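=== RUN LOG ===
request id: a7f3
mode: sequence -> structure
chains: 1
length: 79
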Amino acid sequence: MNKNHDNNLNKNSFSKKNIDDFDKAKLQEFYSSILGNNMEEVKKNSQRLRLKIYVFGLFIIVLTLILTFFMEKISFVTS
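=== RESULT ===
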């Protein structure tokens, strides 16, 4: 009886292992669609993506510093 129960668990498509395998396959498909299929393409595309993220972060930091500088110079409180 226990062996049949174990076999049913292995065949169950909603078991934790099958769900994990399905999620892993979906993640691999998603990342390969963004970064590419072969290793060289993945390296090149991940470097481009990393550069874009760093440039965006630097832009946000510079914009924040500029806005902070101008907000301190302009007084909104009238006396």
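=== NOTES ===
The radius of gyration is 26 Å.
The chain has two domains: 1-35, 37-79.
=== END ===
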